[in-house]
Specification:
single chain, six-stranded mixed β-sheet, five-stranded mixed β-sheet, globular
């Protein structure tokens, strides 16, 4: 059984759309290579006085349509190939929703759950200092990702500002409100997934209130998606995190789950919690499945046990190409990550614009603008899928690649 790396998955998805577009061979080669790959090895003083050396990455894929944009993740499995794939996906994600950014991604190989807050702060500040030459408000604007949050973005912003000699709010997005963050940013990815899930259900002839939902991953994106879908009338029957999951056919009390996680840090210990549901939640008998954890979760190994009729990818790269091919033949409707989880980068763009203008919007305006952009992008992808008789992922790539290719052609090759 083939093991897919994240980058192999990304290239396979790209090639399928590029073939349909008859993309110029030169552009195809250009898009398959990131513009810059930056690797840093840096020391951090730990609480016990010892020195540990960490490896960090920042990959900048393409900036034809605007400054690079992409999150920073802290995870033990972070490596160059993963970050390269994530940067690649960010280029197409920004393009498919029409946001004037290019794609980038960063990360540090570490386990922040085993570090103190002070150690994470020192790591963040040193990593920021190392990548400072290649980031900036008009160059590359980082954001939160797996195991990073508003506080970490505040440390990134402060470190960059100290080295610049003045406050630079717009160097990162996903910051606390107190230092220039945008209302609605924390919920943006989950809210975008909710908008897209409603549209997908509609196109499959279902009302959200008639649908059962399972969500793999109960971090920021998964938990907010669960809360919003539940408030919209959907029956969220299963959720999971790294410790396991819970399932109740009649529907879960999401507010109680959120309170438990806030108090205990995970779903572990919640009534009905089972370890085997960590990945097993993917196989529950539901109408809608939302993988919101990490890449390569729906694979050739478990694809035959997937029962959902609609899959909305809230994580990046959760479905391998062979699994997707099998599910599409079964009639499963899959909304790809570069469309369905783009709400975060849309509101990141709003935050960046507000920082530059020094003029802030209220939450209603942010959410309304987010809804308009997500709905428009969904309809554009749906139209391409219908007209070209292709799946939604290929349609999304056709739209995104066309936009980036047009930008490259308009700018030309220098010199």
């Amino acid at each position: 059984m083939r093991k897919w790396s994240a980058y192999e998955v990304a290239i396979k998805q790209f090639d399928k759309a590029a073939d349909i577009l008859n993309l110029d061979e030169g552009l195809r080669k250009l898009f398959k290579k990131p513009k810059r790959e930056f690797i840093v090895n840096f020391p951090v003083k730990m609480d016990d006085g010892s020195i540990r050396v960490f490896t960090g990455y920042r990959v900048q894929h393409n900036d034809a349509r605007g400054p690079y944009k992409g999150g920073i993740r802290y995870h033990p499995n972070v490596d160059l190939e993963e970050v390269r794939a994530l940067a690649f996906w960010m280029t197409w994600k920004c393009a498919v929703v029409g946001v004037p950014f290019g794609g980038a991604k960063g990360g540090v190989t570490c386990d922040p759950k085993e570090m103190s807050k002070e150690e994470v702060e020192r790591l963040t500040r040193r990593y920021t200092a190392e990548i400072a030459p290649i980031i900036g408000p008009t160059k590359d604007v980082p954001a939160p990702d797996v195991n990073t949050n508003e506080q970490i973005m505040a440390w990134v912003m402060d470190t960059y500002s100290v080295e610049s000699g003045y406050t630079v709010n717009c160097v990162v997005t996903g910051k606390p409100i107190s230092v220039g963050g945008s209302v609605g940013r924390r919920e943006a990815t989950g809210r975008g997934v909710t908008f897209i899930t409603k549209e997908a259900c509609k196109h499959m002839g279902k009302q959200l209130s008639q649908c059962s939902v399972a969500i793999q991953g109960f971090g920021n994106v998964g938990s907010i998606t669960a809360k919003l879908l539940s408030s919209e009338g959907a029956r969220v029957v299963g959720v999971s995190d790294a410790t396991g999951g819970v399932y109740d056919e009649s529907g879960l009390d999401i507010n109680k789950l959120l309170l438990h996680v806030k108090q205990h840090g995970s779903l572990e210990g919640y009534p009905g919690h089972k370890k085997e549901l960590s990945s097993g939640v993917l196989e529950l008998p539901v109408d809608v499945l939302i993988p919101a954890a990490i890449e390569n979760q729906i694979t050739a190994e478990n694809m035959h046990r997937i029962k959902a009729k609609i899959i909305v990818e809230a994580a990046n790269g959760p479905t391998t190409p062979d699994a997707e091919e099998h599910l599409l033949k079964k009639g499963v409707f899959i909304v790809p990550d570069i469309l369905s989880n783009a709400g975060g980068v849309v509101v990141s763009y709003f935050e960046w614009v507000q920082n530059i203008q020094k003029l802030f919007w209220d939450e209603e305006e942010v959410n309304q603008k987010l809804h308009q952009i997500m709905q428009r992008a969904y309809n554009e992808v749906w139209e391409i899928a219908n007209n070209r008789k292709v799946d939604m992922r290929t349609a999304a790539y056709i739209l995104a690649i066309s936009r980036v290719a047009n930008a490259v052609k308009a700018r030309g090759i220098f010199p």
